[in-house]
# Entry
Amino acid sequence: MARSRQKNSRKLEKPATVISRSNPTPFTAADLPVDDEGRIYHLQVEPGQISTDILLVGDPGRAELIGDTLLRDLEFKHENRGLVTLTGTAEFTKNRTTIIAPIRTSVATSGMGTPSLEIVLNELVALNEIDFQTRTRKPAFPRLHIIRVGSSGGLQASTKLGTPIITTYAIGLDNTGLYYEAPPPDPNTERLEEELGRVINNAINIKSRYYGKIFPYVARAEPALVSALVEASTILGVPVKTGLTVSAPGFFAPQGRNIGRWKPSLPDPDRILAEFDPMLEGQRVENMEMESSFLLHFLGGLGYWAGSICPAIANRRKDTFTARYQEAMKNAARVALLALAIVRDRYPDVRLH
# Structure
């Protein structure tokens, strides 16, 4: 079963290729801002400096921590606008992970919330798909694998602080995803959107000016990445939970934290969604954060593979918080890196058309 040492030391397999219809009309300088050094505008990164296997984090400090402690042979590192982007090699040498080859991996900062994430994801996709010389989309390009590693609040009382939550479906309370007409990946997403729409609408006062104006959308994590994350957590001995994630458009009132002087239009969204039964083989709505919905919606619709693993550093049912969350974040990053390697090792030749 074990592979030879020579094969273990090989670099990344040729990535799966997405075949596209290249656009013959070049993108304008206004639509695709590129500086005089050939770098995309916000990230200030050139094509080729980013891997096809990417960890996405909100905190720039977390990107640097992962690069400094979990990657070797850093070949690229840059910061612009607080967005740290770096590329190095993840290598696995413990127990069963020795069968996995080293993998070229990038870590990119998304910032906080889906509006910032929307910018970063579009630029990562452009770096992968667009020829910056001709400003046209390439006829073929590799499939991206992107996993978000972020912090979250646990919504179920049984969740131990620090437990990484692996997302199966994400519930988007933001409206960023509504600007991208990605098709629903399965019947569950459409059913959940209808049911959650009723749940949220029933929780809003009928006299509110926003009654009937909050429209949740639902996105699905790539099942192969979900399985790889679960497998990686078992290999590394990191206890995890799997379930649905809520992505809120903010941190305070949108997540049920009422510390301001305005009355929230949607009271207690954390409690309401924690009690919701998605009827998915015993899964529950496990955690709440601010980015996974758009990540899964946007990338999944493009044929890329996206996933999310976010430790619960607070428990909303028990009103607790752990200040010792860095170790939980590092464990989640280790799981995510191994999951990327497992997927790349297992599906090197899958092609999408």
User: Anything to note?
Assistant: Helices lie at 5-8, 60-70, 114-129, 187-203, 223-236, 269-275, 292-301, 326-346. The CA atoms of residues 197 and 215 lie 6 Å apart.
